[in-house]
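Recap from last week: sequence in, structure out.
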Amino acid sequence: MNPYRHSQSSVKRWGGSIKDYLPIHELIDSPKASMNNNSARALTHNTWFAYTIVPQIFGYNIKNSDGKSVDVVDIAMLHIAEDFMMKFVPTAQDYLKHLEVQPWMCNGVKTPDNDECKETAKQLISKLNQQNNERNN
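Predicted structure tokens:
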């Protein structure tokens, strides 16, 4: 399902309008922009994300356009369950236990084979150096 369809499901369950729920569902599905397959779900389609991250961004409840208070964890958990055909809601551990730890994950001992991540680090260092220079002048 896409964020719009998830929002329709939320409206059916809790009332309000699609725009009440769309930002939450867009956040949960946002990793799709970085990887065009279902492995991106590991980042946001889990109980840790639903219970920890979603409330930090949206607060514990939203008030929909009908004036009803809706728990954002319930919204996130429904989204995740719908994407897994209402059979389960995975934990972060369910994904991570299948992850093969790479040498670069161990405090940067080795470097990933990815030019983009190296360039991002260079840009960050350059920005920090510039900020330091401005502070010292």
